[in-house]
Amino acid sequence: MPEESRRSSIDNFRRLIVRDSALLFTARSLRMFAYGMLAVILALHLDALGFDRTAIGVLFALTLVGDTVISLFLTTRADRFGRKRTLAVGAGLMIFASVVFATTGNFWLLVVAATIGVLSPSGNEIGPFLPVEQAALTEELPKERRVTVFAWYNLVGYFAAALGSFTGGLLSSALQRSGYSAHDSYRIVILAHGGVAALLLLLYLPLSAKAETPHVEIAKTTLGLGESRPIVFKLSALFSLDAFAGGFVMQSLISYWFHLRWHANEEQLGTILLLGNLCSGLSSLVAGRLAKRFGLVNTMVWTHIPSNVLLILVAFMPSFPLALGVLILRFCLSQMDVPTRQAYVMSVVQPNERSAAGGVTNVARSVGVSVSPLFLGAAFAVPTLGLPLIIAGTIKIVYDLALWRMCRATASDL
Q1: CATH architecture assigned to 2-212+221-410
Q2: What is the C-alpha radius of gyration for the chain, rounded to an integer number of angstroms?
Q3: What is the pTM of this model?
């Protein structure tokens, strides 16, 4: 009986882990679908409301600044407050932002929603979700499996974002052909984004206690970090630089640039982001294999530099097809550093500091990306120059070289 009881307990534990993992992967898919759907039309929606490019940049910046503060607050307390509760709060804030952006054109109300709510202008992950979900997944993952699982985690996210981008552009175009104004079609897409957030809330509620951390930090720490603080702060500074550059080429802004430069319509923009996210997703699996052979840092740096060279080249392409082709090539490489970066962070910090480490590094990225929209007015002043692409690509190459220099001692074994 004791042996049978032990086996039954193990089986129950495994079922809970599988169920929780399935819920987290499903939540990731739905969330990225909503983010991708929004990225196609968000800048166009604000433009339709009558805001100029500077005002749009300010709203984007405040959206990302608000996310930074909220994410830092929630993720550094998630292990004490509860991971399930933290994720549920994030879903609630996502619903709030969607409702406000869909129902008002008042600048100051939008500022409040952008600052307090969770809304992704980039089409990429935002809010407290990623670090908390990955900390929950990491608890049961041996070190050698993390890159592969994170690669699949990112893969489902990229595919969902791709489908969301395509759906957002297609839905907006279909509504306009049916007689809706452009503005009304954008509002409907934003409300759909809020509806997906409501589904997220329902998905998080059944998470079991196995999703919570068994490692509760009691000693006084800085932002939930103890021994891991020096390496996390160094990585955070570099990740912030990379994100600052990325703020010039968020998916919604790439969409906006192609609209200004090549007069691409909503359906074409949705297709561009669909192809880009599909390529990014498939490349995540390749990143896992490269990391096993060449190491995490080598894979991060030597796939990222060529992608940034391609990003700069997009600005110099003389036609829409060529610009699109080079951009898709760039998408094939640009996100291969993501699962390796995530696995690297989880590998170099203490197990009981993973939620905080993931939160702090993600918040550092949010800080970086929240600053760059303030320069959008100048960067987009002459669309034919492609300044956002050139600026982003150049700064990202500087980041790659700095990361390589800092981590070169461990590049061969991590």
Answers
A1: Up-down Bundle (1.20)
A2: 21
A3: 0.70
